[in-house]
Specification:
The protein is an alpha/beta fold. The protein has eight helices and nine strands. Helix 2 packs across helix 8. Pfam families: Ribosomal_L1.
Length: 230
């Protein structure tokens, strides 16, 4: 077993074996986010779902009110004749067949790819490149759209995609350790509400199992769900 360093041991000792209300949890998280860099803040939500059944799968998007604290490069794929100066100013990368050619060469220097529906057939051949990176546009991810302007603004504002993994757990970046407590709380509540509002139809009985938050290098803190029902 790997030996824990002093900082990790001290941080773990700060966590009691109990549920914390959301304000306590956020305050405690910030005291344990004491690495020598600004740590990310993550939420890990365990749900009573079995994603192998189609009516128990969860995949959606939400706009975090205070953003993620992480700047992402956004590429847009659309017909050449529809590209305008406004789109060029909003997107980090924009193109048509030329962008497809660039991706074909393995040059993928963006974090999000947005496409118009009419360009999707041309992207099909790039599944082996984009798929493993999680960059293939899809309607469920909100990245296939006819409203490029609105979609770009939403992702710039803090729109994120989330899905439950095969064990029914959602892992989501909700901010940075240098966010204010109130900003982290606002994002946290937005995450809870989005997952609640997108409850799969096949779920019976209790939906949420546990809701934990942690920083990149910090210990996990379990939140009392009753305080998040706002």
């Amino acid at each position: 077993m790997k030996k824990l360093n002093k900082r990790t041991k001290e941080n773990r000792q700060k966590i009691e074996k109990r549920l914390y209300n959301q304000t306590e949890a956020i305050s405690l998280l910030k005291t344990t986010a004491n690495a020598n860099f600004i740590e990310s803040v993550e939420a890990h939500i365990s749900l009573s779902i079995d994603p192998k059944y189609s009516d128990q799968q969860l995949r959606s998007t939400l706009i975090l009110p205070k953003g993620t604290g992480k700047t992402k490069r956004i590429a847009v794929l659309m017909p050449l004749e529809t590209i305008t100066p406004e789109y060029k100013n909003l997107a980090d990368i924009i193109g048509s067949d030329d962008l497809i050619e660039t991706i074909t060469k393995g040059e993928v220097n963006f974090d999000i790819l947005i496409s118009t529906p009419d360009m999707m057939p041309k992207l099909a051949k790039l599944g082996r490149i984009l798929g493993p990176k999680g960059l293939m546009p899809s309607p469920k991810a909100g990245t296939v759209t006819t409203n490029i302007k609105l979609t770009l603004k939403e992702f710039k504002k803090g729109k994120v995609e989330y899905r439950a993994d095969k064990t029914g757990i959602v892992h989501l970046l909700i901010g940075k350790s240098n966010f204010t407590d109130s900003d982290l709380l606002e994002n946290l509540i937005a995450v809870y509400n989005s997952i609640e509002n997108n409850k799969p139809p096949g779920v019976k009985g209790r939906y949420f199992k546990t809701f934990h938050i942690c920083s990149t290098m910090g210990p996990s803190i379990e939140i009392d769900l009753s305080g998040l029902k706002l």
